[in-house]
């Protein structure tokens, strides 16, 4: 979004898609994602990405056969993760999705920035700022490339390795700024029910 500072506080709906939409993260069985070996690596690195970043919080997410949806909260106000999320929240039985927060109000929705106040940073929109959504996504993708390459070496798989010229995920990604509670609830429900609608999903290669 032009004039929006993606290193500022906000609640974001992001989507990452595998290169060529390859279904190499797993498969859908009875409405749940059953991870492949690659899917397990992606899932582990996804959760680890939030453990090492104090300013980022993971809300609802789902890992599908060839894409990942998530609600991510960027909060630099210094509120402790435990104070924001408490001890509630659980992962799906197969680790395919999880809820790490109870409600959008607890994420500091009132602190969302105004796009008009970010005009000064418009010229820097193509610069990956530290502790921003883009730097987070870039770091996650790089970690996935590295870990999967290690797995390819370890198992001596006869497939190309992943690097800057051969990304595991597509180089771009989709992001949407969540503006209000109704939008949050709609997106959260979409993420939760995504596996149940895989047959008609736009990312399903059979479509």
What can you tell me about this protein's structure?
The chain has a single domain, classed as Transposase IS200-like (Alpha-Beta Plaits). The chain is 27% helix and 20% strand. The chain is built from four helices and eight strands, in the order βββαββαββαβα. The chain has helices at residues 37-51, 81-85, 133-155, 181-193, and strands at residues 10-17, 26-29, 32-35, 56-63, 67-74, 90-91, 97-99, 174-177. The strands form two sheets. A six-stranded antiparallel β-sheet has the order 6-7-4-5-1-8. The protein has a two-stranded antiparallel sheet with strand order 2-3. β2 (26-29) and β3 (32-35) form a beta hairpin. The protein is globular and about 45 Å long.
Distance from N terminus to C terminus (CA atoms, Å) equals 29 Å
Give the H and E element order: EEEHEEHEEHEH
Query: What's the number of helices?
Result: 4
Can you tell me the overall shape? Answer: globular
Q: What is the count of distinct domains?
A: 1
Highest CATH level, the class: Alpha Beta
Strand order of the largest sheet: 6-7-4-5-1-8
What can be said about this structure in brief?
The chain has 207 residues and is of the alpha+beta class.
Topology (elements, then pairings):
Elements: E1 10-17, E2 26-29, E3 32-35, H1 37-51, E4 56-63, E5 67-74, H2 81-85, E6 90-91, E7 97-99, H3 133-155, E8 174-177, H4 181-193
Antiparallel strand pairs: 1-5, 1-8, 2-3, 4-5, 4-7, 6-7
Helix pairs in contact: 1-3
């Amino acid at each position: 979004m032009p004039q929006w500072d993606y290193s500022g506080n906000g609640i974001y709906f992001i989507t990452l898609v595998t290169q060529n939409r390859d279904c190499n993260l797993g498969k859908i069985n009875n409405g749940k994602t059953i991870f492949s070996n690659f899917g397990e690596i992606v899932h582990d690195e996804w959760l680890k990405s939030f453990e090492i970043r104090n300013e980022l919080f993971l809300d609802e997410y789902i890992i599908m056969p060839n894409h990942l949806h998530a609600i991510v909260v960027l909060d630099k106000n210094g509120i402790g993760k435990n104070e924001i999320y408490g001890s509630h929240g659980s992962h799906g039985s197969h680790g395919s999705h999880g809820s790490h927060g109870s409600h959008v109000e607890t994420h500091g929705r009132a602190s969302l920035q105004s796009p008009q106040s970010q005009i000064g940073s418009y010229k820097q929109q193509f610069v990956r700022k530290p502790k921003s959504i883009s730097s987070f996504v870039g770091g996650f993708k790089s970690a996935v490339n590295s870990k999967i390459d290690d797995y390819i070496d370890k198992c001596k798989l006869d497939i190309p390795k992943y690097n800057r010229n051969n990304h595991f995920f597509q180089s771009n990604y989709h992001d949407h700024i969540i503006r209000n509670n109704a939008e949050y609830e709609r997106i959260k429900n979409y993420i939760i029910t995504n596996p149940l609608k895989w047959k008609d999903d736009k990312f399903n290669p059979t479509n």
